Amino acid sequence: MSEKILLEAQNIHVNYGAIQALSGFSLKLMENEIVSVIGANGAGKSTFMNALMGMVKIAKGDIFLDGYPLSSQNYKVVRSGLSLVPEGRRIFAPLTVEENLKIGAFTRKDVSELKEDYDWVFSLFPRLQERLKQYAGTLSGGEQQMLAIARALMARPRVLLLDEPSLGLAPIVIREIFRELKRVNERGVSILLVEQNAKQALLLSHRAYVLQTGRLLKEGLSKDLLEDRDIKAAYLGQSA
Amino acid sequence: MAFTFSTLIQQIINGLSLGSVYALIAVGYSLVYSILLFSNFAHGGFLVVGGYACYFLLTQWGYGVAVSMTGALFASGLTAVITERLAYKPIRERTSITLYLLIASMGVNIIIENLFVVTVGGRIRALPQNTFPTGVFNLFGGVALSASDIISLVTAVIFLSLLQIFLNRTRWGLAIRAAACDIRTAGLMGVNVTFLISLVFFVAGVLAAVGGIFLSVRYSLYPQLGSITTKAFVAAVIGGLGSLPGAVVGSLILGLAEMLTAGFISSQMRDLVVYSLLVIMLLIRPAGFFGKTISEKI
Ligand SMILES: Nc1ncnc2c1ncn2[C@@H]1O[C@H](COP(=O)(O)OP(=O)(O)OP(=O)(O)O)[C@@H](O)[C@H]1O
Ligand SMILES: [Mg+2]
């Protein structure tokens, strides 16, 4: 991990009508780092991810990538190197696995290098290779999540954003996916992970932020938060 | 009317020829529906723009058939893009309720119609006789196959095949298919959704113009010609809203039903049969032949 700031969000405010979903949340992601954001239902985690991706309008606040302001237009954000695995996976069910991966590579100009990326995502998730011609809608939940991650990786992002990748999956599949995310990070991709499954997220990430009703509650090294009494009580399902 | 084998063949030829024109219109309409999930009633207006552009390029400005037709396709495609940008995009950005888009499209249709009434007048025109070859081939038993039937069938097949290749073999085609499934997530793939929607409208406009030109040749050209799009809507619903193969199948069924009714029952019964088919379809299979279930798409 380097000490260079890759992505920085400052004082982000997002409102949905009268509802304040984010009221001044800030976050930093270093190059090669894994950062997680944990928080309960409705804390504003998805809103934060969507704000980064240019999917919801920011009322106040700034986002920088490499120190330069990030575009607020969705497709430009993707082109500048952020790729989101959305909440609920949102794979394209009527398209084949292969077509899902192809559309993931939509922004790529270096078409000659795509073969490498296919090989890479297949090495992470071999099951996808066996099911290339299958319609994505017929995959199991775990396979759909793998596809959603592989699809995002086909864009060769600098930052991979994941919104609750463990949602609705069996523990064994969650462990498999998190193991592969570690490998993704080792290839030099920075990861921003949003999770309700705080334990898994803290075990994977280097640092973490705790979000509560749109505000920062706590931040620190993941290993310290794993031992934190309040966090244990509120998010890890253990009494302190 | 007596049933004869040659009448049957004749009406099948006529039905396929008419159905192919419906298909060109219905497919573009269905394509827009698949992305934005609303019935674009201005589609008929695009068709009228195509018809008039072709008419004026041929008769007033003296261009050849090829240039006039190409010009008409562009004129209609651009009208569709401009309509989307001016009338639909501002609504899309404010609300996700598609009913507003539908109402706006009715307004646009009336505007286009009346612009022609005001500028060129409401009188009925015809594309020059020599626009297309006019030969007629007499087959057995008095069955006539006209050159314009053949041309409209062949042209429809060519344009629909080109569309199919575009959607299945190109990068933007894949993006359109992805957007038809989930437009927000298509944006997450780095697709410029605003451009994609313009592209879809352009393609729909071009296909409508091809239909418009054939209609102007087969029947005549007047500002309300676009109302024939209702038939294409019906065809799209029978085939399954938002499904392109469905739009083609629905159109051919409709064309055949109309012509067989005209041949064996009476020409006045055509519309009665068409709309009865629609009602029956909605009762027994509301999603149409190829449609997704209604709860998913409406
Ligand atoms: N499109 C929307 N319109 C109105 N309110 C919204 C919208 N999206 C989210 N909200 C509200 O904003 C707040 C934050 O929602 P958000 O989805 O960001 O939470 P979250 O932390 O991702 O929750 P979860 O863990 O359940 O996914 C909630 O109160 C939610 O009801
Ligand atoms: Mg969420």
Report on the structure:
The complex is a heterodimer of chains A (240) and B (298). Chain A is of the alpha/beta class. In chain A, 36% of the residues lie in helices and 27% in strands. Chain A has a six-stranded mixed beta sheet, sandwiched between helices. Chain A has a four-stranded antiparallel beta sheet with strand order 2-1-4-5, covered by helices on one side. In chain A, strand 9 and strand 10 form a beta hairpin. Chain A is globular. Chain A starts with a strand and ends in a 5-residue tail after the last helix. With 298 residues, chain B is an all-alpha fold. Chain B has a two-stranded antiparallel sheet with strand order 1-2. The longest helix of chain B has 32 residues. In chain B, 71% of the residues lie in helices and 2% in strands. The C terminus of chain B is likely disordered. Chain B is built from eleven helices and two strands, in the order H-H-H-H-E-E-H-H-H-H-H-H-H. Chain B has one domain: ABC transporter involved in vitamin B12 uptake, BtuC, CATH 1.10.3470. Classes of the chains: A alpha/beta (240), B mainly alpha (298). Chains A and B meet through helix 2 and helix 3 of A and helix 6 and helix 7 of B. The complex binds adenosine-5'-triphosphate and magnesium ion. Magnesium ion binds next to helix 1 of chain A.
CATH class of chain B: Mainly Alpha
Sketch the topology of chain B as an H/E string, one letter per element. HHHHEEHHHHHHH
Structural class of chain A, please? Answer: alpha/beta
Strand content of chain B: under 5%
The helix fraction of chain A, in percent, is 25-40%
Radius of gyration of chain A from the CA trace? Answer: 17 Å
**Known CATH architecture of chain B:** Orthogonal Bundle
Strand content of chain A: 25-35%
Bound molecules: adenosine-5'-triphosphate, magnesium ion
End-to-end Cα distance of chain B, whole Å, is 41 Å
Computed over alpha carbons, the radius of gyration of chain B is 19 Å
| Helix and strand composition category of chain B | mainly alpha
Instruction: Kindly report the average pLDDT value of chain A.
Output: 94
Physical arrangement of strands within the biggest beta sheet of chain B: 1-2
Shape annotation of chain B: globular
Distance between the termini of chain A: 31 Å
Number of strands of chain A: 10
Q: What does the main sheet of chain A amount to?
A: 6 strands, mixed
Low-confidence stretches of chain A: none
Let me know the number of strands of chain B.
Answer: 2
Q: Determine the mean pLDDT of chain B.
A: 89
